[in-house]
Amino acid sequence: MFNDNDLINFLLVATGVLSTSTLVLGVLWLRSRERVLRMRLAQENPDAVREDVTHLVQAVDAIAIEVERISEAQRFTALTLAERSGSRRVPERVITPH
Predict the structure, then answer these.
(1) pTM for the whole thing?
(2) pLDDT tens digits, residue range 64-97?
(3) H/E stretch holding 45
(4) From CA 28, how far away is CA 11, in angstroms rounded?
(5) Residue pair 15/76 in contact by the 8 Å Cβ criterion
(6) pLDDT per position as a tens digit, 40-65
(7) DSSP state, residue 86
(8) How far is CA 17 from CA 37, 39, 46, 74, 75, in A?
(9) Measuring CA to CA, how many Å separate 10 from each of 38, 50, 54, 77?
């Protein structure tokens, strides 16, 4: 019923949708946390805000790591499917500067 190209296309679309939704939810969460931090800054001492900002930075770092893992998984899946379908052309790995 489905051939390899259909499966590859489905996996690429699913990965794109999941990545996009993860990033959108992450941005919305960060904006809400920013609003909370601003409210606390107006009401509380700076030490509590500093702790929250540190926590927020750690959360952003964790999101960045997860996005990198998702992209690595997508590359691996595409490579595996290309090899399985008998394709002679293997996509080269692109190393992006960070």
Answers:
(1) 0.44
(2) 899 889 888 888 888 888 778 765 555 567 677 7
(3) none
(4) 26
(5) no
(6) 777 766 677 778 788 888 998 898 89
(7) T
(8) 30, 33, 39, 12, 16
(9) 42, 44, 39, 12
